[in-house]
Fold this protein.
Amino acid sequence: MSDTKAEILSRIRGALGSDGSSAGATGVAGTAGATGTAGTTAAPVAVPREYRSAGEHAPGSDAVLELLIDRLVDYKAEVHRTTPEDLPDLLAGLVTQRSAERQEVGSSDYRSPDVLPTTPATPRGAVVVPHGIDQGWVSAMGGVDVRVDSRDAPLSAAELDGMDAVVTAARVAVAETGTIVLDGEPDQGRRAISLVPDVHVCVVRTDQVVQTVPEAVRLLGTDPGRPLTWISGPSATSDIELERVEGVHGPRTLHVVLVS
Amino acid sequence: MSTFLGMPAARDRRGPGPDAAPGSLSGVGRPEDPLHWGASFPDAAKAALDNGQLRRNLGKATSTIRTKRARVVGEVPDWEALRDAGSAVKTDVMARLPELLEELERNVTARGGVVHWARDAAEANQIVADLVRAKDTDEVVKVKSMATQEIGLNEALAEEGIAAVETDLAELIVQLADDMPSHILVPAIHRNRTEIRDIFLERMADAPPDLTDVPRELAMAARAHLRRKFLSAKVAISGANFAVADTGTLAVVESEGNGRMCLTMPETLITVMGIEKLIPTFDDLEVFLQLLPRSSTGERMNPYTSMWTGVTPGDGPQEFHLVLLDNGRTKVLADEAGRSALHCIRCSACLNVCPVYERVGGHAYGSVYPGPIGAILTPQLTGEESDLPYASTLCGACYEVCPVKIDIPSILVELRAREVSLTAGSSGHTADRVWSAAMKAASFAMADGARFRRAARVPRLLRAISRNGVIRKLPFPGSLWTRSRDLMEPPRQTFRDWWDGREDQR
């Protein structure tokens, strides 16, 4: 054990052992409230967990989906509902639409010139997908430059910056907070691919939608070591006079596609 | 024990601070000690109260966030149960801190991370500087972090020839202006859009020359400025909102995506966190991920939360260092009455409801931790005598909104009591002498009914110097009170006179 570590731990033990020196001086809650007094022993303090561990609606139910859509729209995400059969066409449409917009607007408004891709994007657009994505999803993207990224064969930052969009799956979605969570599995990919491209298209199966945060945390807790990204709407800032600006460093457009 | 609830002494021990003139481009400068800079609170508060622009900015900001917070907290049917759980989890953490820290270290190490321990700011800064130098780079990107502000990391790195680039928009504004943050959540809230445009034009080399003061345009200029740095930086530095002992998982909550950029793109990640940021289990996140965003930005959830556990091969930084920082926290822990200040999750809800903060702003507190939480945490961390416990009206609003139920007013009263007993009888200070004389006089008057009756009539004389019901300036020693406060005109009639009259009418 390093000296500094030993000293810090010994300071902490000394601090916890010094109870009583100022006991009774005040009735400060939080140290001596209903939850028990922080003392010299290392016995866990009982934590009251009276809060809701699950919502009243079942995962994937109509009520939960309605709530999720309401929250997503409130946070300026674009929501689409579709069926597995229509999904490929919808995805292809979103990607090519994005490419057309980008060529119209030009790219100088949002990227520094020195990280521009050396080759221009293909006419119908370029999209990055994780290697574990359902192959059917990209089957309708004829003419689109579909690039596959994996941990073993990752695209460079500059290559990702040249993509019009990224398409991923998700691990779970939380209706009450309008959140989708990615956990880096093969159908969601490395964290960088859902971060650098300017448009993120995230496909969520309706049975993945839970109502509350605790339901999602407990699901994710089965594999807590995976890199997790919780996403609630596109990136945003309110740093200038509290005026909300959507789209800063993360993808400026978030499409959530609900499939059932 | 006597408890002094009144007027703070105007201590000048900090020396004069480089106060920024209203509207000036350059800020207050970067202080040597981020926990202790600028003028004393009463002096700084007086200067801030004279700055109308600042007061308007703050008033608008705090009321806007207050309203948003109230709305989204009202949506949650089990909010009080979440607060109770959050408070108890933090109490548990403090009680078991040594074992939980060692558990965290074991789990981070098992997943390929390296854990460092730092007793104070200098040690932490040295550890970080050495790690950065070993990567052969002279520029690092940074996510907004209170811990690294507290230890003055950027300045320490600059001395070693390493440029630390703040990537949060507000922190970037503050850094470019050579300023200090004035709010935990929105650090540049004391700047308006025109000032920000001027700062960008003068200090950001690649700012478009035709930049306007539209917030969207300013944000896009910052995006372009930082994007190349994000995509090419070798090393990133972050703080942590939570560290999970039983899994070794670290969590950072943010809005702009600058956090994700820093936590994902560089090869090396260095995280500096206070030892109190722990939570025991992964499931505890379900409590804090509900409490923090709603209390902080007034959102149901912040746009992005990143969680990582050590190193994930092929995804994100392949080298991860965690620096565990004491820097006074064990001093706070030793104080049974005040230790719950360590429960703070840095949401800043207490700033937005505080009538004192709303009027004087963050700089007056002379610490990176302003507002009610700063008024208790700062003096406890430094262990120095401080007038910050007096920067409060004890109205209790901070306790009402605190997501982990820190009883800030009670701790303030306790800190004031200690301060008074510490200075009682000491001859040095004017306010102490005045206080002592006033107490003697009060004791004389109140010991006898007739004396009290006569004494109670004296304030009516003050009506002679009031204007429109307000007294702006009292002669000494009353001037110590009115230097930063107005006094309401006393009533025409004392309570006793009114009572007697009421009896007579029966």
About this structure: Chain A has five helices and twelve strands. The two ends of chain A are 54 Å apart (CA to CA).
